[in-house]
User: Which sequence fits this backbone?
């Protein structure tokens, strides 16, 4: 058993989080993660309305009696979702853990804190982590350049970003972006984090509510199978490499604006990828960690394996190196 400030604060057995993922963070996946002793997150905006979110939370409660949370991502939009209504649905449903991401979440943090909800804020830079700490977030999820989705515009990989944040952030911190196995967990703990967040790895589990063909595509892909779209618009997003993402990158190089690619990158098309299994149907998120994913286990198998292997790395490999050094010194 590995106990950290994160596991103690959030009341989970293992320092592993399944963060918010659009179209993927549904009750069946979240409950499976929770039942395995890690922290799962329902993605609020996957649900079309706040009432649908209430129903999804209730559905998750039927599948687990362990703690789970809800992700609320606040991004600039032409027609923003009713964030305050989603927030109210989360509070009224008795959820006690929320993952926030995106724009400054001050009003949301204030409201959640009033109702005794713990806030884990996801960010991509040390300055934003410190800002979230000042805002009253209980913990930070620091997201390196390797991640799926939005890595920010600083291009700082986890190997630098995690210890840089750990030097300055006082509240517990989860490492995110590029994590998928026990080696990553042990490395994150060594770098100063209190656990890891995994997205792409949890997409590729038995309980993940996406098409089997997409899971098989993730297993087949290596670490090079991603594209960075919206670079020219300073809204970078790491997605799986396919016919559409490659086309978007090419169009951007030729000076395309968002209006020119809007139809190609529409969320409805990305949702169809997960429904039909056609990986070229639209844009879908996946990180460089694809290169470390070689199977499609259940969430229970995955989490158990990571924890057992992490303990073995710490006890055998790392401690063995220490005792080896002592032997040489004695000789």
Assistant:
């Amino acid at each position: 058993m590995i106990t950290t400030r994160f596991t103690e604060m959030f009341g989970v057995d293992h320092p592993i989080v399944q963060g918010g993922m659009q179209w993927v963070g549904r009750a069946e996946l979240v409950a499976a993660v929770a039942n395995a002793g890690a922290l799962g997150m329902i993605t609020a905006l996957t649900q079309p309305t706040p009432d649908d979110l209430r129903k999804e939370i209730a559905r998750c409660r039927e599948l687990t009696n362990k703690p789970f949370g809800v992700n609320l991502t606040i991004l600039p939009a032409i027609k923003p979702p009713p964030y305050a209504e989603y927030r109210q649905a989360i509070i009224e449903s008795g959820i006690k853990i929320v993952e926030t991401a995106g724009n400054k979440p001050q009003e949301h943090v204030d409201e959640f804190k009033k109702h005794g909800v713990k806030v884990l804020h996801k960010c991509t830079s040390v300055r934003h982590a410190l800002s979230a700490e000042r805002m009253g977030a209980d913990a930070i999820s620091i997201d390196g350049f390797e991640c799926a989705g939005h890595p920010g515009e600083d291009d700082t990989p986890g190997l630098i970003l995690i210890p840089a944040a750990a030097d300055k952030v006082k509240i517990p911190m989860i490492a995110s972006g590029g994590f998928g196995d026990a080696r990553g967990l042990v490395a994150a703990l060594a770098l100063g984090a209190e656990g890891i967040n995994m997205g792409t790895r949890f997409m590729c589990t038995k309980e993940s509510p996406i098409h089997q063909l997409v899971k098989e595509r993730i297993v087949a892909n290596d670490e090079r199978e991603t594209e960075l779209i919206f670079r020219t618009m300073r809204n970078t997003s790491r997605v799986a490499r396919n016919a559409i993402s490659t086309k978007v990158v090419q169009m951007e190089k030729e000076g395309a604006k968002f209006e020119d690619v809007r139809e190609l990158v529409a969320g409805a098309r990305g949702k169809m990828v997960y429904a039909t299994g056609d990986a070229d149907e639209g844009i879908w998120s996946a990180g460089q960690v694809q290169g470390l994913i070689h199977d499609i286990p259940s969430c229970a198998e995955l989490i158990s394996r990571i924890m057992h292997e992490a303990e073995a790395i710490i006890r055998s490999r790392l401690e063995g190196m220490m005792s080896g050094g002592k032997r040489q010194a004695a000789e």
Observations:
- Strands lie at 16-18, 39-43, 69-74, 97-102, 118-123, 139-143, 173-176, 196-198, 226-229, 237-240.
